[in-house]
Amino acid sequence: MTVVSATSSTTNKVLPHPLNAWYVAAWDHEVTRKPMSRRIANRPVALYRTEDGNAVALADACWHRLAPLSMGKTLEKDTIQCPYHGIIYNSAGRCVSMPAQETINPSATVPSFPIVERYRYVWIWMGDPTLADPDLIPDMSQMSSDEWAGDGLTIHAACNFQLVLDNLMDLTHEEFVHSSTIGQEELSESDFVTVREGNKVTVTRWMHNIDAPPFWLKNMRDKFPGFEGKVDRWQIINFEAPSTINIDVGVAKAGTGAPEGDRSQGVNGFVMNTITPETDRSSHYFWAFMRNYALDSQLITTQLRDGVHGVFGEDEEMLMAQQAAIDANPDYEFYNLNIDAGGLWVRRILESMLAAEGRLTPSA
Amino acid sequence: MAATNIETWQSATVIEVIPVAEAIARIVLEPSLPIKAEPGSHIDLMVQINGESVKRSYSVVEAAADGTRLVISVMKAPLSRGGSIFMHSLVPGTRLEITQPLQNFPLRVGAQRYILLAGGIGITAIANMAVVLKRLKADYTLVYVGRSREAMAYLGELEKLHGDRLEVHIDNEGSSLKVPELVGRADTGTELYMCGPIRLMDAVRRGWVERELDLPNLRYETFGNSGWYDPEEFIVRVPKLNLEVTVPQGRSMLEALEDAGAEMMFHCRKGECGLCEVRVIELAGTIDHRDVFYSERQQRLSTKMNCCVSRAVTSATGAKADAAHTGPAIITIEPN
Ligand code: FES
Ligand code: FES
Ligand SMILES: [Fe+2]
């Protein structure tokens, strides 16, 4: 049987999500004056912008009869009107008008969630608002830096968020899941180093003097037209709690000093991933591919986005199938291998956050 | 609608009962199903009065971070029907039925400035907010108003904790609060949270409206509402139901009608929702409107009243209920 203790359990197959943490609610461009609804950490949230352009997140259920506010409309300043009987709320979730009576009921409020816009995303804090420190937002600075260009999309993944994190913390799956694009057998063969520091985990893998797989050969040729030959390839996976994984990836002409720090003879990308639990069995998986060469080529931005989109479709299929198998086999446990070290450190960190919230429970 | 308003009942053990001011006891409870208590939250609790269980609400004055200890404070009210007397007679080890913390008075994080105003026992609803604002390094002033130093619970602790941010006004020391001056300090970035006697809260509300500040930035807890007049016994007649009921000092008109077998409609039972509204057909006396559902215009008309909190008093002058009245007020109503 599964025994859970606050510090040493990594045997839960899937985990609940910490609430005292920042998650991405949406891309910045998704949130407009027209309210939208999105389920985040099991709670429906209405997202909209005020007249001043500030993003707002309110519980998507009117105080009166729980009609979804996201079906309502935004009015002057920072307000939104319930579509059912017309109660108007401000961005703090407070009722400012009750059409059917002369006074405002002092209890009329809907929860309003702390919001910060950063790195092209709208971040939300679903837990205790008195702990919502913007300094705790994971670093995704490549998303909004002049030195990086790129774009991304959202995958709606029908699995627990932890399975996505596992997937990204162990890239040996590339050889099997992504054999036509980025997979190659050297991935499973090469050594890797795992380091945990506070709420961060890094997994570093170098592959020396190998053939570039198709995806990377194309990128090399974008920067070095006609490139042929061997490369040194790297994958440096950076996890930051609760659920952001930025993977520093690239290849450089073999033997030109990339492992020692000179990447000038190569191409470098950052796969930016941040996973928001939607429910216990589904996730919003926000990703982008950023590069630090050919910055002004919209063609390359679009090609890379579409290429990675195809690759991630392969992950999505596997993750769905894995979640279904987990649910269909409740009596079977996971077995943890050496390659799972990164993912297991992530689980340790999340379990300690959950324990601090009093929410670490054994789950199937 | 917030999940924190779903009543989950649990048992709790009384850990400690100590006096903290004239007629005010501090009661520490250990709930069996602890959850975190947010600032502004309260618990409902069953008190025993003449062998009968009756529900009362008390603010959570302070709480352990994980909710394993909840502190409430109860003032022994001379006109109470017995709830506060029951609470004052508790001894450590007693088991009570209480709800998990409920929330009607949430503190919003992120305002530019805060004024917290507590009158008398109203400090119980405000103290926890002040602690959180201090931790958040927010810009806040805690204004604490009382009759006399002896009647003000937690004064010493608050002085220690909040230093210059605490502002104290004491009637019998000649430093009474000047409400216009206080409201004058609020601007569009200020949120004011208050709990205290209705006269104080009403004066603040008037000042707030006069200054044309946004009403949603004025927050108040209502369950402790006192009236404009001291409660009196009065008579309510319901011709439609062929009823004549005496409403004693310590019982609401809604309760008295229910006791007499009338099937009444209600929701909040604290003067907010307007569901317990009855139509007033005839009145010998004055209505003491204690609800926040009606506008002033509607209260002046007095053609209706919310019977869960509002009462009838003898004085028809609108001045302080005079002691030399000739008999109980009589109100004739038609229930909705
Ligand atoms: S449900 Fe929103 S106003 Fe009635
Ligand atoms: S029951 Fe809500 S005002 Fe009386
Ligand atoms: Fe993958």
From TrEMBL, chain A:
Molecular functions (GO terms): dioxygenase activity
Gene3D superfamilies named among the record's database cross-references: Naphthalene 1,2-dioxygenase Alpha Subunit, Chain A, domain 1 (3.90.380.10), Rieske [2Fe-2S] iron-sulphur domain (2.102.10.10)
Annotated transmembrane regions: none
SUPFAM superfamilies per the UniProt record, alphabetical: Bet v1-like (SSF55961), ISP domain (SSF50022)
Domain Rieske: 22-124
PROSITE patterns per UniProt: RIESKE
Keywords: 2Fe-2S, Dioxygenase, Iron, Iron-sulfur, Metal-binding, Oxidoreductase
Highest taxon in the source lineage: Bacteria
UniProt KW Iron-sulfur keyword: yes
UniProt keyword Kinase, yes or no: no
Protein name in the entry: Aromatic ring-hydroxylating dioxygenase subunit alpha
TrEMBL record, chain B:
InterPro entries membership: 2Fe-2S_ferredoxin-like_sf, 2Fe-2S_ferredoxin-type, 2Fe2S_fd_BS, Beta-grasp_dom_sf, FAD-bd_FR_type, FNR_nucleotide-bd, MRET, Riboflavin_synthase-like_b-brl
Cofactor(s) needed: FAD
Protein name as catalogued: Oxidoreductase
UniProt entry keywords in alphabetical sequence: Membrane, Transmembrane, Transmembrane helix
Domain of life: Bacteria
Name of a matching Pfam family: Fer2
Organism: Paeniglutamicibacter terrestris
Keyword Transmembrane helix part of the UniProt annotation: yes
TM regions (residue ranges): 114-133
Annotated ranges, domain 2Fe-2S ferredoxin-type: 232-327
Domain FAD-binding FR-type intervals: 7-108
Cytoplasm listed as a keyword: no
